[in-house]
Amino acid sequence: MASIKPSVPKGTRDFSPAEMAKRNFIFDTIKGVFRKYGYQQIETPSMENLSTLTGKYGDEGDKLIFKILNSGDFLAKADEQALATRNSNQATLSISEKALRYDLTVPFARYVVQHQNEITFPFKRFQVQPVWRADRPQKGRYREFYQCDADVVGSPSLLNEAEFIMIYDEALSLLGLKDFSIKINNRKILSGIAQVIDKNDSIIDMTVAIDKLDKIGFDGVVKELLERGFTEADIDQIKPIILLEGTNDTKLASLRSALQSSAIGLQGCNEIQTVFDYVAACTPLTAKLELDITLARGLNYYTGAIFEVKTNEVAMGSIGGGGRYDDLTGMFGLKGLTGAGISFGADRIYDVLEELNLFPQSAEQTTQVLICCFDEQGEKYGLPLLQSLRSQNTNAELYPAGAKIKKQMEYANNKQIPYTVLIGSDEMQSGLLTFKNMESGQQEKLSVKDILSRLK
Amino acid sequence: MASIKPSVPKGTRDFSPAEMAKRNFIFDTIKGVFRKYGYQQIETPSMENLSTLTGKYGDEGDKLIFKILNSGDFLAKADEQALATRNSNQATLSISEKALRYDLTVPFARYVVQHQNEITFPFKRFQVQPVWRADRPQKGRYREFYQCDADVVGSPSLLNEAEFIMIYDEALSLLGLKDFSIKINNRKILSGIAQVIDKNDSIIDMTVAIDKLDKIGFDGVVKELLERGFTEADIDQIKPIILLEGTNDTKLASLRSALQSSAIGLQGCNEIQTVFDYVAACTPLTAKLELDITLARGLNYYTGAIFEVKTNEVAMGSIGGGGRYDDLTGMFGLKGLTGAGISFGADRIYDVLEELNLFPQSAEQTTQVLICCFDEQGEKYGLPLLQSLRSQNTNAELYPAGAKIKKQMEYANNKQIPYTVLIGSDEMQSGLLTFKNMESGQQEKLSVKDILSRLK
Fold first, then answer.
1. What are φ and ψ of residue B213, in 5° steps?
2. What is the per-residue pLDDT across A182-231, written as a single tens digit (0 to 9) for each?
3. Is residue A390 situated within a structural domain?
4. What share of chain B is helix, strand, coil (3-state, %, to 5)?
5. CA distance linking residue A172 with residue A344, whole number of Å
6. What pLDDT score does A141 carry?
7. In-domain check, residue A19
8. Would you give the DSSP letter of residue A71?
9. Is the CB of residue B301 less than 8 Å from the CB of residue B325?
């Protein structure tokens, strides 16, 4: 067979042992916190029926769904006319029934509806699985990447929102972040703002403009609002809201005053207040918790709280987000089931921890000790030690006889193994083995018993 | 949108929280043992270039590879002639560049070749990821299932084979199996048998027949050998080998005698002996370790040891297998790199543990305690307890106020939560909360401090 220069498809990645150790550190930490708060793991198939996915992500999203070619003689059932006219879109439906998961949300909605009779509500689930998007690959954007989601469905309580804030706070703190912000907004506040200027139908236009405050400043926002059909009078009225400053309490007080004529706006304020009260009753946060009414992500499906998480230590987009939605499962015929959820951006968190050098060294040390022998006699001598180490649950390896000690040491160094035990003829005679700290280079002569207790 | 009855593609599965807990128990146990023996995790993309996969699994295998339709206007580059003649096979190459991983072995070989300059050899890697096959779905056979592999490449030492036996033994014991067999054979012994009857070219025919001894008995094997062109004289000569009985030592002695004229046959015996010696030097096994010369799986690629693992407690096919191969990476142009590997059949192990009732109850208990309140005052009272529990790393939930206690108890039962704490007006007045063991139904009045220490 001709030799092929091997590679992976563009936008996809291999993960080496060192990278996997770091990724596992992130995923294990987040999963542990999800479990602590009562969230349980599910998994759904990588493939869904194409009909389950299409129409859920907009026209642009539909194009980015990876479709799986039907097996066997797929052309036998292909749409004749679509083939003849080279209409790829139309042909797809006749030669592809399945597609790769595009996110974890739609499969979760499908799961809830399909298994509704087995599920105890409120259903608190988390899911950590890869998703696939036929996006143009670029720095930090991949065609296969993991999503890491927790959602609760069937519970309207705002305690859930408060717990999501605590989950973010605890998980990111455990990962080593020290300065990060959890921003919260509420769709009802945005509705209230639109209501007080009598522009209910323009809420999207309004929030899209306000959302850019960070980037284009107030004057830019004003310009955009004018372009989008808002009047000077409208802008005068919402100016104090857009420029809201001070503590969360101050902001809430100003909002209540500005939104006093809007029942829904006031309800949004009350909801935010309740979430703050829950958090305060539970725990002091490491995070800065910030009411930010310019936050408008996911506005087409969030109906209550909206979250976004950012680190303040590194320039990086959001590392998490979520919110409350009222009709996730409606797309599959189960109406009126309220839910809320959050997501961690694992790839971005990886980059942040790497940049801040926050991965614990232990995350990469999979083997604790390597037993190195000069010859077969040493190997034979070392095997019972190897066994004793493993019996006490110390991860241990013995380098098979026949390699030079230098090569064995390189192996230990490359694999970040912190300790080695050397067994030569002196060691076998005295029963005292050379125990080497690979980081400091320090060597000691120790009995098997002492080595075992050092590594326990 | 019209309501769709949601379902998953045939041959694929959702995993519920209870199933995930059990699956995690299996995977975490096996991964822990892999790590103890110095194996490190990698992951490869779900998609590989189609050219990486085709031609590696035989013609039948190629048909079972799930191909991914090229994105965008794929018909623009489609093979005109293939479309015109409705030649699906030929058309595939022009409309599909990528395919889903069919096993973990070929992607691993691709990984080793692609990253050979970053890898420290011997490279001991494990990999636990799903694979996809367009097989006809049937009981116990899925189109998406996890494989769970460990391989070492770049080390000819038979210590690796011995360690695979110990890995099987330790992992399956930790999973609770008490009576299982690890069968070992060596390709060189089979070559030796073919050599002594001067039928080197018919080794596959011979072993395929011998492999059926269990099912069709000796007379059946004889019949099949005759049909496949072996003579009565051949059969007389190999009869004692096929009917080998007794301890491993007895079998090895008989084999040495029968294979004395075959250098490769004797080498096979020596290799088996060395593996047995290594195991004996390390650890007493729970498993029955059996030399079984009828074992012939993977004969087209294994060149040395061949392994198969079976439970003796339940009727079930093999729950693990593997062997040594000498040219895994040759398909991608890197010659002469020897390797050995094993695989655990996770789905079958799941069924075995289920049938034997071996899953620990704790595997399903994700939340340790549920705090139940009669009203909002109780909720407020319970929040600091909730926080204290989580601070001491007890997985805890508080059922948001507003639900009847009966519903809260059902929630605890369905989620297999072992303890509940009830907070009503009596409890708040006395400071002694009702602590209920959900399995026994027993209730006690305990202070917050006592509850915390009970659940620590």
1. -50, -45
2. 999 999 999 999 999 998 888 888 988 898 888 899 999 999 999 999 99
3. yes
4. 45, 20, 35
5. 10
6. 87
7. no
8. S
9. yes
Cα of B303 to nearest chain A Cα, Å:
19
CB pairs under 8 A between A and B: 281
Domain with residue A439: its CATH number is 3.40.50.800
Establish if A63 touches chain B: CB-CB under 8 angstroms.
yes
**Looking at residues A144-168, what average pLDDT do you find?**
97
CB contact under 8 A, B38 and A97: no
In a domain, B389, yes or no: yes
Report yes or no: B53 at the A interface, CB cutoff 8 Å.
Answer: no
Alpha helices by DSSP H, A100-144: 105-114
- pLDDT, one tens digit per residue, over A8-32 is 999 999 999 999 999 999 999 999 9
Query: What total number of domains does chain A contain?
Result: 1
The answer to whether the beta carbons of residues B427 and B433 sit under 8 Å apart is: yes
User: Is A144 in contact with B46 (Cβ distance < 8 A)?
Assistant: yes
Using a 10 angstrom Cβ sphere, with 0-12 exposed, 13-18 middle and 19 or more buried, the burial of residue A405 is middle
Contacts of A299 (CB under 8 A, 6+ apart): A187, A190, A203, A204, A207, A306
pLDDT over 90 (residue B363): no
- Split at pLDDT 50, 70, 90, the class of A3 is low
How far is A197 from chain B, CA to nearest CA, in Å? 32
**Unique residue bearing structure tokens 């022998």:** A373
Domain that holds residue B394: 366-454
ipTM over 0.90: yes
Q: Does residue B314 sit within a domain? A: no
Whether B84 has its CB under 8 Å from any CB of chain A: the answer is no
- Contact criterion met (CB below 8 Å) for B199 and B319: no
Measure the CA–CA gap between A155 and A169, rounded to whole angstroms.
22
pLDDT digits (tens, 9 = 90+) for A83-122: 999 999 999 999 999 999 999 999 999 999 999 999 999 9
CA distance A434 to A444: 6
